Amino acid sequence: MIQYFKIDYHRCMFKGSIAQIVKLPWDRMNPVDLAFLSTVTGREFADSLRAGAEHYKNDGKILQMISEELQTDNLVYRDYSKKGDHVDMLLHFFDELKLWSKVSESVKEAGIEYVKGMSALSGEEKMMCIISREKELPVIFTKIVDSHNWKDFGLGFYEKYLRDHIVWDGEEGGHADLVGHIDVDQKVLDSFWKLRLKMYEAVPLS
Ligand SMILES: [Fe+2]
Ligand SMILES: [Fe+2]
Question: Are 36 and 103 in contact (CB under 8 A)?
C-alpha cells in the first residue's frame, strides 16, 4: 500500500481513465441522465463512507470530512435545507420534479452495474475510492457543470450540488486535503476509475 501523494502517476492506469472521463462529450449527454447518475454514485458514496468509516474512528480529519458529507445540513437549495446525506437533496428534487421517468434505460442499467461493481469491494477499499474521489472529482464536476445551462432544464438543484462539491472537495483545507494522508492501493483505484468511466460511457449521446 502506498500513500496517494507517493503514487507514480505515469504508471497509473487510473489517471488514464480520469483523463478519458474529463474528455467525454458531456454537452451531448442528456442532463437528466447525468443528474440521475449522481443519485446512484451519491447513494453509493454515502454507503461506502459508512462502510469504510469504522477504520478511521480516531482520525480527526476523516471525521471532519464525514461530518460534512453525512447527515449534514450544509447542502441547501431553495426550500430544501434538511439534514441528510448529500444524495438526499438530489432524491428530493427527483421526486418533486418527477424526473425518474425521464432517465434513459441504458443509464439505469449502467447505474446497476456500477453499484454491483462497488459492492464487491471491502470497506477499506471503498474508502480508498472515496479518498480518490475527493481529490479527482472537482475537475470532473467542473467539466459537467460547464457542459449545460442547468437552470434551462429545471435542474438548478443539480448545478448547486456540483458547484458546492467542487468547492468543498477542492478548496484549501477541503476534503481532498483532509483525506490526503490515507494509504491507497493503486490497483483498487485502477478498477474503480475504469468502472466509473464505463458508467459514464453508457450515457447516450445526442
Ligand atoms: Fe457530498
Ligand atoms: Fe467531499
Answer: yes
Kindly report the backbone phi and psi dihedral angles of residue 70, in degrees, each rounded to the nearest multiple of 5, phi listed first.
-110, 140
Cα(75) to ligand 1 centroid in Å equals 9
Q: Considering the domain 2-23+31-201 in this protein, what is its CATH number?
A: 1.20.910
The alpha carbon of 162 and the centre of ligand 2 are apart by a number of angstroms equal to 11
The answer for residues whose C-beta is within 8 angstroms of residue 185's C-beta and 6 or more apart is 1, 2, 125, 128
pLDDT in tens, 40-67: 999 999 999 999 998 899 999 999 999 9
- Contact between 69 and 179 under an 8 Å Cβ cutoff? The reply is no
Strands 2-3 and 183-184: antiparallel
- Residues 144-185: pLDDT tens digits? 999 999 999 999 999 999 999 999 999 999 999 999 999 899
Nearest ligand atom owner, CA of 85: 1
User: Other CB atoms closer than 10 Å to residue 85's CB: what's the count?
Assistant: 20
119 CA → ligand 1 middle, Å:
19
pTM over 0.85: yes
